[in-house]
Amino acid sequence: MSQAQVSGAPQILSLTLDQTYSTALPNNELLLEVSAIAIRADGIAYVLDRSSASIVQFGQNGRAIRVFGRKGDGPGEFRSPYRLGLLADTLWVSDRTHRRVSFFSADGRFLKSENIMSPASASSAASAPIALTKQGFAIAIPGSVTVGKEPIVERSVPIVRISRKSQAVDTITVMHYSDRQPVIQLSVGRTSYLTDPMPERPLRVVSPDGRLVLVVERTSRTQQVGYARVLIFDSDGRQRLAKTYRTTPVSVSKISRDSILARYVAAYKSSFPSELATKQAVSNALQLPEFYPSISSAGITNDGRFYLAMPSDGTPVRWTVFSERGDELFAFDLPRESQVVSMAAQFVWVMSTDHDGVNTISRHRLAK
Fold first, then answer.
1. Backbone angles phi, psi at 270, to 5 degrees
2. The pTM is what?
């Protein structure tokens, strides 16, 4: 088993558990699909759980204070909550289905809703914001412009700034990349589109305050040497950083390949005369790559520091933290089933998922 590394030799820090957020929620539900987390300066945390379409507020002691929001169409209710964030002491939550942003007080009281969406065009659908800025703008990613025919298409995806009245202001950047759309030929003469289990599309992340946009272009599906190109923009479109890092590709092991194939075979076995025929059809459609994408996850802080996770095939995942100028600062390791969801000063917030799919949040202190 191997682990990717970026060039250089940053100092390796350890993580000391500082706080575990309780899984005992007031509504007796579990965190099953955490999609976003916002943390106030005083340590109060708000966690968006898509499965229940609700927000859980955690106190400084890690205990759940309250749960607010629910599935529905009324004020303060959601159908497909997407992102959340903080504007001073006000919490906002965007909803893709309702095409609106709901605002709540610090104690979870519903304040108002605004219809904020990126304008639709002939080539892209409207999109809910991924961030709001204190300057009164929103950041959104409309649908892509696609050229070509499956299984490989060329996509152009803009990241745009819009007004709170859903009017286009400007384009921050446009991501261009090749995308695989696997197609499986079913024995009954039909086709079905599969989700690429290892997509190479660029990663895009916005800082918690909506001021900085991070884009990470990735390579490595078949290359012996991998690269990751990091681009950082202000929300007004000014480029702050453009830097390329060399990575060591991580091979996809046979165990991982077999595990991926098994999931798809189980989903499509009823469409083929035998399990062997299903496996052959799935394998031909997926064409699993030799290597993982060069970077598996990324994030950026309000002060411009950013962090990249290297792919791993069974070993702990190496997370490397960089300065706003792109210099390597330090690194730390996390179990493969854990994900960094936020970082500030000397703390790192981590989400872990157990075998039952339950999410837990914990805060860790960085230590030498």
1. -70, -15
2. 0.89
